[in-house]
Amino acid sequence: MAENKELTRPELYENREVSWLLFNQRVLSEARDKQLPLFERLKFLSITASNLDEFFMVRIGSLVDMVQAGYTKPDLAGLSPKEQLAILAEKTHTFMALQYSTYERSLLMQLAANGLKVVERHEDLKPHQQEFADRYFEENVYPVLTPMAVDSSRPFPLIRNKSLNLGALLIKKDKKKPEKAEPEFATVQVPSVLNRIVQIPGDEENGENILTVILLEEIIERNIHKLFLNYDVLCVHPFRITRNADLAIDEDEAEDLLLEIEKQIKKRSWGNTVRLEIEENADKRLVKHLKKELAVEEQELFFISGPLDLTFLMKMYGLEGFEHLKTAKYTPQPVTELSGEGSIFDKLKKQDVLLHHPYQTFEPVVDFIRQASTDPDVLAIKQTLYRVSGNSPIIAALAQAAENGKQVSVLVELKARFDEENNIVWARKLEKAGCHVIYGLVGLKTHSKITLVVRREDDGIRRYVHLGTGNYNDATAKLYTDIGFMTASEAIGEDATAVFNMLSGYSEPRSWNSLSLAPLWLKDRFLFLIEREKKNALAGYGGRIIAKMNSLCDQDIIVALYEASQAGVKIELIVRGICCLKTGVPGVSENITVRSIVGNFLEHARIFWFHNNGKPECYCASADWMPRNLERRVEILFPVEAPALKDKLWQILDGQLRDTAKAQILQPDGSYEKIDRRGKELFNAQEAFCEQAIQEGSSKNSVADTRMFIPKMHVEQE
User: Fold this and answer.
1) Residue 711 pLDDT greater than 50, yes or no
2) Rounded to an integer, what distance in angstroms lies between the CA atom of residue 672 and that of residue 227?
3) Which of 22, 287, 571, 584 could form a disulfide with 668 if both were Cys (CB 3.0 to 4.6 A apart)?
4) Distance from CA of residue 566 to its chain's centroid?
5) How much is the pLDDT for 714?
């Protein structure tokens, strides 16, 4: 723990959950930005909804567990779990109101004006549309539905996590005095196997030549009486619940981790309810019934003015015919150093290669495994897998390598949240192909991204290594910004071997050459590097730190940054998501700035730059500055030492520090503000990196000099 008690005062820290909501607010600001193409705004709004679902399932769910267990220890900001829940209830209600205000008051009208009309209420359908909807229900929907009534012989049904449902109150038609009868509850799940967005005939009377759609639940609601023929339907309203989905696994007691996780995944659909969403102005009797049966507190109830579950907007984004309302799709560019004839191994023997995804293609990483799987001189392939795509070419290549007689060892992290089921499938496929599959270390997640290829060559055994800041997922590699590093360095090769020996045999080497590992001593390494800048500043040599990551909430690191700031070190942080550090605190953090960039790509790379008295050191890592990364996961920090590659990392950091288009700056009051752009030249770092990659990728004989690259600017009018 941090020893400087003056710098551990709660008022110097932001609550991590509140900070995460501020991040989602920045994503929402993209959905509200009228400068963006309309369908991009739909995409960002969908992302905020998906993010919030996970926030409730994991973070809110965890806090609820703490409260129920009587846990009262305060967080860095001095808030108990119960106090955090109260604050988050207010903030999430406000946030969701802004989500729906954005959709209802802005996006819907813009969609209609651009040729896409969404009929929100089935009552608004014209006669010919009603006829179509009823026929569609009879032919496509009715056979799939399972209506469930609740009475003395039929208990309240289990409602699946995140499923969309219609709740209804019914009265039997044979009741003599229906006004005095107690309504019965019934529900039907909106089937996820059917498209939620249903195209219907347009408004022919007005001759409108636009695409008209309605949501599936509206068609079901219109026809729900057909599901309960002996009843009168008093009311019907859509509702949706979010359940606590944080897995609790006792690894020491689990004889087979794979089977235990499979069992826990099934429980995820039935965890305690942490949020109930229901249509605004829903019948009070229905709301009361749902609250009672689902054990929902008042603060967990959300009345929704609009369609429930805005993640459907991602499907709407995929509708054809609206490409002019989207950002032009970017194609990742080839890597010049690895282009042309010859094997990837011959090229890596000549030089290290730094990859910047998604600006540069992920294909060299896939090719690295593919070539190794068929190369007769390759003896072994070892790799860690945290998340992979649904049809992963890397998994296929590893399986092929094993079938070709290579020694293949793969660590599959089964505890990768919400990818557990996917990873179980891949683990079994790899085992079936003959790979040696490891399921990680007890009590730790293996989050590091590393591949080792051992090859027999004329001068002996040579090791080739890939290290990355992001997962071996070829799909997300087109959406997430990450750094990949490929090398034939003997020192790093030795360390890579040590990493895999540690993971498979619990054997920790006596010394390391270049890599720093968590939870062994990575945190100490970071603290040393920060302390060195502080000492240099105190000695009059100046000090500067630039660090780019996803989240910052480790108190020991924050205290070290505060101390370095007090010593005069200039600290520039690029933090996409959670940031518990506060800027601009007199005498504490006046030399620290924090910026967050939310753009077309998800910022995911971790890059750390230290001035080191004029001899800069550059590192990349799989880890953020969070306790879970530094203390409870296997993570890797690796140095980038070749001058040309260090310069490339510098250009990335410098570009993000110059961004005036997408950057938002953390203010002393904890809020984030966009840079005042009136009359100023705008610099969009992500767009600049795209153009730079295109320039470099089209160069056949040499890599373009990044220092000479001048991105195209545009000026936003006042």
Assistant:
1) no
2) 50
3) 584
4) 34
5) 35
Q: For the chain, how big is the Rg over CA atoms in Å?
A: 28
Which secondary structure element, helix H or strand E, spans residue 427, and what is its range? helix 420-433
Cβ(486)–Cβ(368) under 8 Å?
A: yes
Burial of 608 (0-12, 13-18, 19+ CB in 10 A): buried
pLDDT in tens, 12-49: 999 999 999 999 999 999 999 999 999 999 999 999 99
Q: Which residues contact 212 (CB under 8 A, 6 or more apart)?
A: 117, 119, 129, 199, 200, 201, 202, 203
Q: pLDDT at position 178, please?
A: 56
Instruction: Report, as residue numbers or ranges, the catalytic residues.
Output: 447
Q: In whole angstroms, what is the distance from residue 649 CA to residue 653 CA?
A: 6
Intervals of CATH 3.30.870.10 along the chain: 336-514, 518-715
Q: Which amino acid is at 274?
A: V
pLDDT higher at 54 or 263: 54
Cα–Cα nearest to 49, from 302, 357, 333, 253: 302
Tell me the three-class secondary structure of 34-88, residue by residue.
Answer: CCCCHHHHHHHHHHHHHHHHHHHHHHHHHHHHHHHCCCCCCCCCCCCHHHHHHHH
In three-state secondary structure terms, 320 is coil
- pLDDT tens by residue, 574-602: 999 999 999 999 999 999 999 999 999 99
Question: CATH 3.40.605.10: does it fit domain 336-514?
Answer: no
Top CATH class, 1-118+306-328: mainly alpha
The pair of three-digit structure tokens given for residue 147, joined into one six-digit string: 């209506």
Other beta carbons less than 10 A from residue 17's beta carbon? 23
Element (H, E) at 204: none
Right CATH for 518-715 from 3.30.870.10, 3.40.50.10610, 2.60.120.200, 3.40.190.290: 3.30.870.10
Residues counted in the chain: 718
> For residues 187 and 197, what is the distance between their CA atoms, to the nearest angstrom?
21
Better-scored residue on pLDDT, 297 or 387: 297
How far is 563 from 557, CA to CA, in rounded Å? Answer: 10
CB 192 within 8 A of CB 173: no
Biggest CA–CA distance in the chain, Å, is 96
Cα 90 to Cα 298: distance, rounded to the nearest angstrom: 11
Model pTM score: 0.91
List the structure tokens of 347. 């090229």
